[in-house]
Write a structure and sequence with these properties.
about 70 residues; mainly alpha
Length: about 70
């Protein structure tokens, strides 16, 4: 389960997104949720700062976090 929040706020501990209601209503469901980097920490583009070329994926860290969660 990936929480909402527009890549700016939220998390799996938020009662709105923790999946507890889904599990309570369905005995045969397991909820797996993941957090990801939010705001600047998930979308910062380091390409224009000195040494930034060493971090080509920096502007996609939130998406990479989600991809790792799905892989797991």
């Amino acid at each position: 389960y990936m929480h909402g929040g527009g890549f700016a706020w939220g998390g799996t501990a938020d009662p709105l997104y923790n999946g507890e209601t889904i599990v309570e209503q369905h005995d045969d469901v397991i909820v797996v949720s993941m957090n990801y980097r939010l705001g600047m920490f998930g979308q910062i583009d380091l390409s224009s700062v000195p040494g930034g070329e060493e971090f080509p994926d920096s502007k996609n860290l939130a998406m990479l976090d989600l991809m790792q969660g799905l892989t797991w």
